[in-house]
Amino acid sequence: MSAITLNQYLLTRQANSHSPRRINHLSVDLTQLILQTAIACKGISAALHKGALAGILGSANTDNVQGETQKKLDIISNVLMVDTLLGGGQAAAIASEEMDEMIVASDSGRYLILFDPLDGSSNIDVNMSVGTIFSILERPNSNAVTTEDFFQAGQHQVAAGYALYGPSTLLVLTLGDGVDVFTLDRDLGEFILTSEKLTIPEDTQEFAINMSNQRHWEPPMQRYISECLEGKTGVRGKDFNMRWVASMVGDVHRILIRGGIFMYPYDLKDPKKAGKLRLMYEANPMSFLIEQAGGASTTGRQRIMDVNPDGLHQRVPVVLGSRNEVLRVTHYHLSPNSEF
Ligand code: P6P
């Protein structure tokens, strides 16, 4: 397969999207916005690659809007994303996990972009995989941009993806017509198309959850995990394996490649938090990718991409992955006393 760069891929999609068979309109501005995002991710990858040699590991001794202690690389990654996107001109406004408020970027910009610049950053100091997650919405009107313009359900995303900084640096992208994977060729400095149209198996024997929170879960989640742990001795009739990367990008990527179910459920530890993960720049973009690959993604009670946002940093319970397992967990929440 000849090497197709991200740029060539997007330009080809852009040309085709004007054809009668157009799948999803890919504007010049959206193409450029995605390329700008990819440039920022290359910069983050380079910074991570240096690691301790650049003196950028460890805590920044500051807290973000979530009240979480920031790593130095959280701040560096956010600066790289913001500066690159401000320079591009395609974003009307920018929102980030690391910033309390959105930033107005360009009066002529057609898109709103939200991101978690470095997801899983607690893994950095132990050299484990981390990632950048991004979600792109259309600006709803030509009025001065407000925070409320971002409050669009996940089904309105026009593009979403993540960079995974692992043994390879990958860019995983959907434009609403499947999920494709690009691998960073450090020698060329280009993302090269390496996998197309990822498809998640409908069934799985692998679940991902932080088991230390078990005593805080609601009964339906207790039931589902207990059945997985009973394995072939219980009602499921098959054994399960468990994985937990503690970096959503790593867990989601594994599921996109080989199936599985990822859960960060509502827990009673802090009921007002409705779980840990954020709707706008974690759950929505990952749900878009998962659904585009044939999986499912719910809060346990409703489709995540149907949730109507009312805050940039609102949290939501997450159950995503292989369709039949997600449907089972959701059924347990909605019809607790019936069999699946
Ligand atoms: P815990 C990383 O901080 C994150 O937001 C996700 O990437 C990850 O799935 C989850 O939190 C890990 O949470 O409770 O295991 O540290």
From TrEMBL:
**Where is the Fructose-1-6-bisphosphatase class 1 C-terminal domain positioned along the sequence?**
200-333
Q: Where does Mg(2+) 2 bind?
A: D116, D119, E282
Please give the catalytic activity noted in the UniProt record.
beta-D-fructose 1,6-bisphosphate + H2O = beta-D-fructose 6-phosphate + phosphate
Q: How is the cofactor bound?
A: Binds 2 magnesium ions per subunit.
Where in or outside the cell it occurs: the entry states: Cytoplasm
Q: Got a GO cellular component term for this one?
A: cytosol
Q: Which CDD domains match?
A: FBPase
Claim: Magnesium is one of the keywords in the record: yes
Q: Where is the Fructose-1-6-bisphosphatase class I N-terminal domain?
A: 22-196
Binding of substrate occurs at D119, G120, S121, S122, N210, K276
Using the UniProt record, give the first listed, main subcellular location: cytoplasm
Fetch the NCBIfam families from UniProt.
PRK09293.1-3, PRK09293.1-4
HAMAP family tied to this protein: FBPase_class1 (MF_01855)
Protein family according to the UniProt entry: Belongs to the FBPase class 1 family.
> What is known about its subunit structure?
Homotetramer.
Q: What's the protein called, per UniProt?
A: Fructose-1,6-bisphosphatase class 1
Annotated organism of origin: Aquirhabdus parva
